[in-house]
Design a protein that fits this description.
Blueprint: E1 24-26, H1 37-53, E2 59-61, H2 62-66
Parallel strand pairs: 1-2
Length: 71
């Protein structure tokens, strides 16, 4: 848990939390014929979008992101 480390933000931006947090979207694919890196990146990006929509300090795997979005 990154927030538990209590790393202070160096930014002077008042809209940021006073400590560093991390939101991540993760994805994994097994190599297949015809697969491409773009689909892996798109899956991770979709998961990241869901993690960010939940607020700060979330980790969302792609399979969970699929069940939480319409597109």
């Amino acid at each position: 848990d990154i927030a538990a480390l209590l790393i202070p933000h160096e930014s002077r931006d008042d809209t940021l939390e006073p400590i560093v947090t991390v939101s991540l979207g993760s994805a994994a694919l097994f190599p297949t014929t015809g697969g491409n890196p773009e689909s892996l990146i798109a899956a991770a990006d979709k998961a990241l979008y869901v993690a960010k929509s939940k607020g700060r300090n979330h980790l969302i795997p792609y399979s969970e992101a699929l069940s939480q979005t319409d597109s």
